[in-house]
Design the sequence.
């Protein structure tokens, strides 16, 4: 697509439920990144994909968080048994080339009640 | 560590010039990005410096000194729409984002 697309744009869920967030990167971009941004805070790195593999998962906060990428394109971030502290904006970015200029989607605003 | 230090907030007047400074740890450095983020929106790419010196792009310029671990973003002829958070980002083995500098432009 023309830009990075994320869905849903907003998600409200109850504590303990699972949620799945989707990212569709710019066509042809091999690198894909997930970040989390809490209100008034900087971006927190979660996970990085190169193609379908994830060389760096170091930012995932707990084993409730997982992500996958298929076909070198769409990625899903899954949060199991959501907690209130998971409430944040989840941003996805994609890039291509050595400069690693990342282009961001509009994000998914997750609210856990 | 990967600490990126930039001021939390700055205020400037429409039409003026403002400089936003950023310092970072020099180890493991591949490049320095600046991103702009309007409230409630995703960050957008502004500039990328990999060599020392000044890169100019319209009203925005970015400077890098690799030996000092220092960069700045210079915004000229400020407009109200420039009110946003400006993120200094170090590119090492991955991107590390600073917390951002909230710039308020007043008339």
Sequence:
């Amino acid at each position: 697509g023309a830009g990075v697309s994320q869905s849903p744009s907003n998600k409200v869920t109850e504590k303990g439920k699972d949620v799945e967030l989707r990212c569709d990167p710019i066509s042809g971009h091999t690198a894909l990144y997930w970040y989390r941004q809490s209100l008034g805070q900087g971006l927190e790195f979660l996970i990085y994909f190169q193609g379908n593999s994830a060389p760096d998962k170091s930012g995932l906060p707990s084993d409730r968080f997982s992500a996958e990428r298929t076909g070198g394109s769409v990625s899903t971030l899954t949060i199991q048994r959501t907690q209130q502290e998971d409430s944040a904006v989840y941003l996805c970015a994609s890039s291509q080339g050595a400069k690693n200029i990342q282009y961001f989607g509009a994000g998914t605003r997750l609210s856990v009640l | 560590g990967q600490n990126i230090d930039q001021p939390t907030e700055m205020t400037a007047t429409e039409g003026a010039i403002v400089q936003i400074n950023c310092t970072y740890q020099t180890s493991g450095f591949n490049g320095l990005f600046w991103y702009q983020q309007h409230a409630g929106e995703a960050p957008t790419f502004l500039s990328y410096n990999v060599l020392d010196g000044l890169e100019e792009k319209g009203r925005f310029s970015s400077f890098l000194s690799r030996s000092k671990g220092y960069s700045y973003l210079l915004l000229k002829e400020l407009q109200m729409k420039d009110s946003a958070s400006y993120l200094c980002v170090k590119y090492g083995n991955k991107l590390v984002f600073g917390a951002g500098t909230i710039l308020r432009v007043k008339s």
Observations:
- Chain A touches chain B through 18 residues (CB under 8 Å).
- The radius of gyration of chain A is 13 Å.
- The longest strand of chain A covers residues 43-50.
